[in-house]
């Protein structure tokens, strides 16, 4: 009925414009304009998120990594009880930058600080202590799971880097092993979590937690965000006097900026 009612108007419009070909062009132009406006809207939302969050357990090396990225120099650090933020310039012409935010890793603080900054995250660097990893794997996976099932993180899908830190130490586990172990632990967590998930502010999402694809063992490729692993060392192989090994991390930051 609606189509029938519109037909006289379309016929009149065709006569005014000189035929159906012109009308088709007009419709195509409108479609292009709408697509462009939607693209601008999505890009605008993404560009408004300029923060790169540094997450991880206590003593993973987040604060030293934060300091090394900003100044290149070594400094003694202690357990953070609040966030630290600074503008990090990614190119010599200083036109490209992001805001690095180092969040506390203490169990009683990390989720409340993530809640505060998660909506602004363009990317997340999840720092892992590669030396203590075997001992801490369950705690690392638990925190990472809480990040990955959060509704805001899932919706915005910020790029995620697992930074396998402290590679200067002989006993450090490789990025490949860390990835395999994390996938295994996250798969176990997914199976054991039968209760409805909650967002970081404590509100239930009303649906069962579903990390990855149902019926398949979990792996990081199933997530809505792109996940990469790098090996790095905020301390560096020569300790306090030497340079940090952060080249892979710096290249990734340039890519996601």
Class per helix and strand makeup: alpha/beta
Broad shape: elongated
- Tally of helical runs: 8
Percent helix: 40-55%
pLDDT under 50 segments (min length 5)? 42-46
Name given to the CATH homologous superfamily = P-loop containing nucleotide triphosphate hydrolases
Domain tally: 1
Strand runs, count: 6
Order of helices and strands: HHEHEEHEHHEHEH
Specify the CATH class.
Answer: Alpha Beta
**CATH-defined architecture:** 3-Layer(aba) Sandwich
If strands are numbered along the chain, what order do they take across the biggest sheet? 2-3-1-4-5-6
CATH topology: Rossmann fold
Keywords: Endoplasmic reticulum, GTP-binding, Membrane, Nucleotide-binding, Receptor, Transmembrane, Transmembrane helix
Protein name: Signal recognition particle receptor subunit beta
Subcellular location: Endoplasmic reticulum membrane
GO molecular function, one term: GTP binding
